[in-house]
Each structure stands twice: as structure tokens, then as C-alpha cells.
Amino acid sequence: MVGMTSSGAMAQQLMSSSHTPARSWKEQTNTWLFSALLILGGSLFVALCAKIRVPLPFTPVPITAQTLGILLVGSLLGWRLGLLSMGLYLAMGVAGLPFFTGEGAGWSYLLGATGGYLLATPLAAALVGWLAERGWDRRVPTMALSMIFGNAIIYLLGVAWLAALIGLQAAVVKGMLPFIVGDAFKIAIACVVLPGGWRLLGTKKPEQSG
Hints:
Elements: H1 2-50, E1 53-54, E2 63-64, H2 66-94, H3 106-110, H4 115-119, H5 121-133, H6 140-166, H7 168-175, H8 180-201
Antiparallel strand pairs: 1-2
Helix pairs in contact: 1-2, 2-5, 2-8, 5-6, 6-7, 6-8
């Protein structure tokens, strides 16, 4: 009886261990698929935000909702998926899909006056996502501060790129100052709608406090 019991226990253990890799593989596949959908969805969301565009007559840089999309993608997806999502966004735009502002696409658009702002998008999303993963998204003040830092990266690279074309002073006047108030408003909107994004994705919903 002891031998039979031991054999039965061993058989059960072998059967259990033989099923574990299958379950693990399935779970990993589901996770990879969900991550891929998040990466694609984030890039498409930013592409949609880029279409909300108000051109300004005195600057080559338009007002868009693109910054709002970048900050939300970074906060919702975290730094890795946020970085990959914005990298995919740039890749699809360079490949010819009209994902940049207006009908912009291709290398010529990326290397144009707004190229610095575009190239900053993966870094901005990654920074906001990195801070969110460390709890900065659990309270409104730190959530807003993380987005300010992300926005600062966009300004830094965007203005530096533009300065190479028109000079630093002109780049600051035409590529940053007109957008500060609007970007502050976008950050406020992002802080308001972010919990809705958590609910939509079925992810965390930390309590917010002022």
C-alpha cells in the first residue's frame, strides 16, 4: 500500500508538472498578446491625437493634442510599453502612414522643423511611465509633476532641434512660449482622465488625493 501510494503520489506530481509548462506558455502568450495590443493601441491613440491640430501663423510648430496622448500612454502603459508604443508610432509615420500632424509622414517630415518634438516622444513616454511605476501616479500632485517632466523633455529636444534651424532665441519664442499654457491644460486633462484609462484597461486604480 505504501508503495502504491508513493507511486500514485509520484504520478500525480509528474502529471501536475507536465501541465505546468502548458499553462505557463498559454499565460505568457496571452500576456505578450495583450502587451502587443497595448503597444499598437497606444501608437494609434497618439496618431489620432496628432490629428487634432491648430496651425499658428507665426511658427512652424502647430498646437496639437499629441502631447496629451503621449503623457497618457506613458502613464498607462509604463516605461517599457510606453517606449515601444511611441517607437512604433514613429516607425509607422516614417514608413509613410499619415500619423504625424496634418497629413505628415515619411523621413522628410521627421527631419523637418518639428522633428525634435517627435523624436522626444519615446523618451517622454518612458520617463512618465517610469515615474508612474514608482508610485508617482497615485496622487494628483506627483502625477502632474511626472507629466511636467515628460513635457519638459519634449520641449528640450524640440526647441534644441528647432534652434539648429532658426536660432535659439527664435526657437524658444516660436517653439515653447506659445504652448506653455495649452500644455498645462493638457496635463490637467490627463490627470482627470487617467483613472478612466485604468478602468478601461482593467489595470490599477490607486486612490488619488490632493
